[in-house]
Amino acid sequence: IAATQPSTNWHLKENAREHHTSKFSSEELIVRRGQAFTITFNGTERPEQNLIFIAETGPKPSKASKTLATFDISSTVSKEGWSAVLQSTSSNSVSISISSPHNAVIGRYRLSVQSGSSSPQSLGSFVLLFNPWSSGDDVFMPNKAECEEYVLEEFGIIFAGNKNHISSFGWNFGQFQGDILNICLSIMDRSLYYRQDPLTDVSHRHDPRYLGRVLSAMVNANDDQGVVLGNWSGKYEGGKNPTSWTGSGEILQSWKKSGFKPVKYGQCWVFAAVLTTVLRCLGIPTRTITNFSSAHDADGNLRVDEFYDADGNHLERGADSVWNFHVWNESWFTRNDLGPSYSGWQVLDATPQEESGGIYQCGPASRHAIKEGEVDLDYDGPFVFAEVNADCMYWNYDSATGKKTLIFSKSTEIGASISTKAVGRDDRVDVTRDYKYEEGSAKERDIFKKARKKLGLEDKFDPTAPKQEEVEQKPDISGKFKVAGSLEVGKDLNLLLVLENLQSDAKTVNVNMTAWSTLYTRRRVNQIWKDSLSVTLAPKEEKQFPIKIKYPEYQQQLTTDKTIQVTALCHVEDGIQVLVKRNITLDNPAIDIQVLGEAKVNKEVFVEVAFTNPIDAEVKDCVLQVEGSDLLQGILELRIPPLKASEKSSTKFKLIPSEAGLKHLLVNFSCDKFADIKTFKTVNVIN
Description:
It is a single chain. The chain has 13 helices and 38 strands. It is of the alpha+beta class. It comes from Vidua chalybeata (Village indigobird).
């Protein structure tokens, strides 16, 4: 006769330590696959005899789909399937070491035990994750410091700005906080793949390649009521401005609390940061990557076309675009479908840009395949290849006649300073060479031709375009914008337009100049300024023309991305037009954080945040937002009184750290004149 319901000791502390899951705050056992964990239970008669264990996951577990395993006590760990090895027995309890296979389906399991012919009795549930510390796992990462960074680190740095002026901000991934693991498990159960065929979906959850693709679709709201709704309009009513988030936790928790309604709003770094949180939480090593001058090639011809009118205004024609920067993910796993040389870092992109297989998902694309121009390999090679390699074509478009004339083309514009955070340090690492051969080298051009050939594109720019448009003539003059002075919100913007006559006879040039505020995607929002000038350049002469755009002129027009595009279209008499352009990102004023005293576990410590108003006008609607894993619960929001011109504000608040180690405090300050001034501070918490 079966005894009463067994009570289970999951040895949470010891198992978590062995399985690198101590950072989860859970009453449930969380372990990694391909590695043994120990449990003790009582309430079975003659425990060591005829015990059969049943581990099952998903809606209709079956052995065929590897979502159900039955195994009895054996003397050794099984190489293939699940196994149980007896550790010790006493009169009424038994300790068992249970091992799962390296390729087990991940997720929440129900564990039960059967003794003899009696019916199975539940021992409870546990969660099984990927195991980058285990050499048999598809996500195995031999370098332990990289495992620490790409799986266990809850703080990240995301790079932004533009290629001439790289900036960065901190992000709290928070993958081990509160309910995040449960939310990640429910993301998988809400995907289109699961809804269409739950049994097949769950049976594929052993495969990081499959889950990476599914989750790249689920992090954006398109198609499937996923986590974050994108918005690139510059208007964010009814939600939060994408630049205002400081971590993924608030986003994932809002999604769950609202009954799984998409959270408003995100842009590329938000999608990438949330995907990083989800994948690290599940045990797949993941990082964010920023690509500067990133191409969005909508028509798949490996080039982006930009159109300008006679006044130098950038026209919204065609679906191609170049973004100042774009953020995606790399995850680390083997590509058994492609072969060993394509294993390692894989590109995943949750930003909804183009459909793949009918829905907005992107990747995994092997980074090695991208570098070698192997764009025909799964998944989404052509799109990712174009993001870092597309050629740029700049056209003059006459709306009256519909005629377009090529101004010039550039093959070295796209994919610059590809960046990620260093392992164990708060520094930038440049990974451009991992995506492509040296820009302008023969090898790089060969790879570009190889990719075009694989996609069936002719070597000409565009086989359908009339040929005379494509003859690129040599310009008579050259031009560039130089920055003179600081690039700060609140200060006047000083530039120099430098024009040089390349010929040995004089040239008369009529220049039309415009400045527009833009989003980081270079989408124009408001015109700030326009001007024109006429100049005669003597043979080989260089001239400089100072341009000043005053703060009051741009203040009302600036977007929260703080980006301005300046263009000068130069009409050379009896010569071809020359386009001079520059994308400028302004810096916010600084904000200062001081930790007042020593930070100790479970002890109060005060923090002071100081901000000085740098402009000659009052700033109001000031809000300070603070977060940091293991330093405070959730997000602290403090309202600050208005600040007069040059006035300094100082705000104090307290933290009660919950865990020792190097922690990061993230601060976001906003007011009516400055949006989302971000900074972070490393706090060393001692016991």
